[in-house]
Design goal:
Layout lengths: L11 E8 L7 E10 L3 H13 L4 E8 L5 H12 L5 E6 L4 H10 L5 E5 L3 E3 L3 H10 L6 E8 L9 H9 L28 E3 L7 E5 L19 H10 L3 E12 L9 H19 L5 H24 L3 H20 L13 E12 L6 E10 L3 H10 L11
Parallel strand pairs: 1-11, 2-3, 2-5, 3-4, 7-10
Antiparallel strand pairs: 1-4, 5-9, 6-10, 7-9, 8-10, 11-12
Helix pairs in contact: 1-2, 7-9, 8-9
């Protein structure tokens, strides 16, 4: 082996199964990846919704990081009973939102890669509208398009954000903007609209990317577990190379399931650590005024929680969250989080059982699923590998 040759980490091999479509699909170039954790009911509800849509993607990949098999069993039971116009792939994965999304990339093949949270329900036309955002861009500059979470839009500006504005932490409350002080303004303040808008970041739970993006970028595995802020970090990386759009005509509803969420202390600590990590990575040359605004915001969030202990119920949650923020701030001062993003490469191989549907007595409805063939990597995963690129990337270390 030559001195210039580079050794790559061995690929992790994961198990799963696939069920072919039982009907014709119109969006053959679209894949949906759903990372799930201990939410079997939500997965079934999402699969049910997809069967009702006239524009469902041709491939749906469920990546399950749960410690048990309940989500996989629920998905398989669902597949036994329902006709569907898409290939359903299930992969058992190590837990972690960004890791599971990267697993889904290696197990899929669509040119346009959609991501939905497992507690989201898209409306008819959602996938087609986002796809059109890519197809309407003849120069290929649009790299990501997000949908509109309509039940979270047109929300009144809260006192928390009005005070932020008054303190000068953010110069304006324009939805979808990211400022050098490290503050990102949520999409929820905007009223419903039609057409497309350019934004600085897209929400990870309702977004699609061009497959070509992942030849150079993977979701950062600095973010572990619940992984708050991973979508902002990915957006800022990708946004340096192309455009990010918000599609007002792609409607989806987020039902905010509570299962699989961290405790309040852990959540508060994670919010500050992740916030600091993103800010330092993407605003390394922030002005002194913006550095001041960043730390003012941390102090403000801590103080706001303390005020909530007196003024609002659920005091135990507020206390835990406030102490989590304080601990996270101390971490950032004395042991700031660091992570070197490895080059993008395919990380996972698969042993996918291919299942086929036996017809019922009338020959029209699937009544059973039986193993057909065993394959180390499915046809779709192999195609995904060709399209995604093959630079070196190692597994993230846990923080």
């Amino acid at each position: 082996m030559s001195g210039s040759a580079t050794l790559q980490e061995p690929r992790m091999r994961l198990e799963g199964w696939r069920v072919p479509p039982s009907g014709e699909n119109v969006l053959g170039d679209c894949t949906l990846i759903v990372a799930t954790y201990k939410r079997p009911r939500e997965i079934v509800a999402l699969l049910d919704r997809l069967t009702e849509l006239p524009d469902a993607p041709s491939q749906v990949v469920v990546v399950d990081g749960s410690p048990d098999s309940s989500a996989g069993e629920a998905a398989l039971s669902w597949a036994r009973e329902r006709l569907r116009a898409f290939e359903l792939v299930y992969v058992k994965s190590p837990a972690g939102l960004t890791r599971q999304r990267n697993v889904g990339l290696d197990a899929s093949h669509g040119e346009f890669v959609y991501f939905l949270d497992d507690d989201c329900l898209p409306d008819p036309g959602y996938f087609r509208a986002i796809r059109q955002g890519f197809l309407g861009d003849s120069q290929g500059r649009v790299l990501a398009v997000c949908g509109s979470i309509v039940n979270h839009m047109a929300r009144p500006i809260s006192a928390r954000w009005r005070i932020r504005k008054a303190l000068g932490i953010v110069p304006a409350l324009e939805s979808g903007r990211y400022y050098q002080s490290g503050t990102s303004v949520p999409h929820s303040f905007a009223p419903p609209f039609t057409g497309a808008r350019r934004v600085d970041f897209v929400p990870g739970g309702a977004t699609a990317y061009r497959r070509s993006v992942f030849a150079k970028h993977r979701f950062s595995e600095f973010f572990q577990g619940y992984a708050q802020g991973e979508d902002l970090e990915m957006s800022l990386r990708v946004g340096k190379e192309g455009l990010l759009q918000w599609c007002g005509d792609a409607h989806v509803r987020h039902l905010s399931a509570h299962g699989g969420r961290p405790g309040q202390f852990q959540k508060g600590r994670m919010e500050i650590r992740n916030h600091f990590f993103i800010w330092r990575r993407h605003s390394p040359d922030a002005r002194l005024a913006d550095r001041w605004r960043f730390w003012l915001d941390v102090a403000y969030v801590f103080t706001y929680d303390l005020a909530g202990i007196v003024l609002k119920p659920q005091r135990g949650r507020k206390i835990a969250h406030a102490f989590g923020i304080a601990r996270g701030a101390l971490d950032c001062v004395f042991s700031p989080p660091r992570y070197r993003e490895p080059p993008a490469r395919r990380e996972y191989d698969f042993h996918i059982r291919s299942l086929t549907a036996d017809s019922g007595a009338d020959g029209s409805h699937p009544s059973n699923l039986v193993p057909n063939t065993d394959r180390r990597v499915s046809q779709s995963a192999a195609t995904g590998e060709e399209r995604a690129g093959t630079a070196a990337k190692t597994l993230a270390r846990r923080f």
